[in-house]
Fold:
Amino acid sequence: MQAEQLVQVVIAALEDMKAQDITTIDVRDKTSITDFMVIASGSSSRHVKSLADTVLEKVKAQGVKPIGSEGLDSGEWGLLDLGNVVVHVMQPATRQFYDLERLWQGAEQSRAQHADE
Structure:
C-alpha cells in the first residue's frame, strides 16, 4: 500500500472514532524515518487508547503489518509506527507540550525564512 493511501486509511479510522484536530505532515524531505506523520487528539486516556486500537485494526484489515507501538499504557499519548506513516495520538495537554507540528513544520518555515534573507 502506498503511503498516501495508508494516510487516508488512518485518517478515516481517526474520523470514525471522533478524533480531534487531525493533522498530516509530509516529512519526506525532512527525514528518512518515515514519509508522513499523522497527529490527532483524544479527549481522555480511554479515547486515546481507543483511537490507537481502531487505527491498528483498520490498517491490519488492509494488510498492513504495524512495526510497533509505544506509550499506549498510560493513555496520555500513543505512537503507532506503520513504516511509511507514523501516527501520534495524544491528549490535548500532552500534544501542546510536545508541539510536534511546530517541530516538524517549523523546520520547513525556518528554512524558507532563511532562504529569503
Residues 37 and 86 are 5 Å apart (CA to CA). The chain has four helices and five strands. Helices lie at 3-16, 45-61, 92-98, 100-116. Confidence is low (pLDDT under 50) at residues 107-117.
